[in-house]
């Protein structure tokens, strides 16, 4: 490990929120109904707020003078630590909500576990975030159920979204040296122990949604380690970081 | 004027509010539906030019502020559609009329947002002009509309301050930022003046609407007020309003200023603004691509209902 | 006029080639048939080459140490001088080819006139470019005819493309102070004199394509003056300029 | 072996070329169609990872070079489809088989391109590995294939030099560029080694293909050759090959190196590479969205033909 595992861990939490928040914000003004525009914006706002907390703390831990904005807007792809799932493109509304559900279910479990972190600052961020994410999960699972058990077309689209995104689920539960260090320090749970509860929740939700979980549990990886993101992240950064890159001396 | 109409007008004259179940003249109802609907549509379409910069916002805080603002606009749209629905029209019908081009939205949203400074200019000038129009409407005669305007005005003035704050950061920033700020002012000044509509002498609905108190001031009054308030703000920012004729008139106590290019205004109304085609296309695309979602959720709700009934 | 009209003029020629070349290059690997992939790449390559010549000369005329790359990759939207037509999005293949035809027909007329420029360097660039653009126009007009006079669907799509893009035609023929200065110096033609020949060519091509020219000749403007581009250009620049903005000290 | 087959094999043994109209065993034809088709598909799909950076190329010259390279790949695809068509299969049929997933393309293109240095690494390593495979195929027994390979190899070695040139610029550039270059090498090293296929002992078609001279060397031979040529180049660039076991073996005169993760190789073949789904989706989308164009141009050509016939 070349860098402090706590810094890595905080970047993982922060980058998940940053990248997913950005993806959700791409919907702005183009959702299927006005109420969804508002709900998606709410979710994005929560995630941006969480980003500020996690990356802010990461910057402090690092102690190199980088704040949350510097971390968000001045790193290139290889320094991002979000899981591959959250950088996947929005696709149609169903794909967006399926991605949200698959992430929310892990996110809430992770945050709930982090409330007991030995690190009080992490525990405090987790507690605040868990409240927001409880609501995210409620909405995203309701939508997955509603569209899965809706019309023939909506069912077909949701099944396609699930098939497309399922290979990105496994990465959230794969542990590595960073996770081991966090576990040993009592800071964060072993990712693997969250899997059983996740599978149960997913099973129940998909059953209600009349959707079929893909059989193959093959898992893409490379996002949370930063070793190999997908091509989508770089394109996102060209937009996200444009102004900071074009006008490095400006304050906004 | 028949007795019913006379009583209606007297109630308005006395400062009373008309409520959904009250009798009202057809023209009053129609005019209100047009006006409130157009205002609602403006909030919806107005999400697009600012939405254009959400993915490029320069800091996390700026992104959050902008996103919250656009979200407020969606909320305003919602209040206003509800107010219009009390007049016996549905949101779906109004949406269809927007998408087909039958109903209008504010022409200002047919102008593009080209730099981050435009997020400042839109807040400062566009929301500023909107507030000029809307503050008096808090006292409009139709109850649901007046109450919606109270909520909206509170948020709008917050947006305007945020816009001014962006302009300030830009105007006091680097040379490039100052250039952006000036460029944004250059592009948005005259379109903002157009937001008050043509001079009253050319305006069709004005007299009756003012009698009904669904329009509270003349277009020219409001435009003058806007200029008088905005010029000192521009000076404070160190920016130059793109009007060489602009001058404080000691006699009238007001600024004299150049009229916008009304030919451009009517072209934009006709559909020839820089972004008319794109804005309507974006709304139509969102609506069309969202159809399966709306249908899916509806079908699920019905299944759920019939399952519950079967269980009872 | 704040800047040298010759510099402005060269930027207009160069930015048209730059922006259209970029748009065409966005098709890379996704054209309807392999032969079109190759042909589109050819066109993009010609336009990139022309960009290097025009912007290279613009940089020399300016004398401020900016070369073609600096001009292409380090200016923000307001400094771009391309007409609005070329920055419009690709849309479907028909829209791309209609945009190409509407531009090529002007481009060839302009380059042909520039061969007689009093400025020998401009005349030389024009001569080289005109050969390439003759071929572009041949291809784009053939495609417009083929698809206009093809199936019901292809006809409908081509008419929609024409209706969408026609309001961007007029700008190419609107003169301003820069054009007046170029005309007075014998460097470039008055844009207005190219219109009659253009209209004739367009009329003939559309007739063969069984397409109907829109009646309204309303013309958007603001591209070639830089006063008001469309929202599309800024998004294009986030991609095009990304690396130069993110790594300003690097050479590539 | 029947006499026809024997004569065929003898002709090959003597270094003769088989031409389209010559008799050939079914297996030879099938294997060639599979091999040439797969190679053609690789050129087509191979446009995508590099196409991903054309809109972000850092200079006009780099953009032109990259675009010309991707264009060459489309051209190679074209030659190869033509070569395969001489064996009695159509380009349309092969395209359908690619799009349905029935025919394969080189697994290397299921890896993403994440930084500009990847344009260097793809040219240097991927084209480099491809050339190792292709140079001997210029002497392959099937005439049209051998001739296509001659043209292709000339261009490929040009591409490889261009890729190495990018790597050089990056490796000798700023700290960030060096980091990008090393990162690209780290990600592409093992996938490049996989391009030669599994060890010969695990390879299905090898023996017969070598007898037929549609495969000229064993996978392991070519892989070793690639490593031996590439290691000094990496050293020259000042980059570290991500293999701690890599070491020059004085006895054999070759480098010893670690095997790639064959489990990953088989997963990618199965469809579980990082980009399999996207690559096939991109090709399907291009094909589906291009249908109206192909149909339109065809309809026009027919109209034109019948108009000409009517005029005669």
UniProtKB/TrEMBL annotation, chains A, C:
One Pfam family of this chain: PaaA_PaaC
Superkingdom, taxonomy of origin: Bacteria
Upper lineage: Bacteria, Pseudomonadati, Pseudomonadota, Alphaproteobacteria, Rhodobacterales
InterPro entries: Aromatic_CoA_ox/epox (IPR052703), Ferritin-like (IPR012347), Ferritin-like_SF (IPR009078), PaaA_PaaC (IPR007814), PaaC (IPR011882)
Species of provenance: Sulfitobacter dubius
Protein name: 1,2-phenylacetyl-CoA epoxidase, subunit C
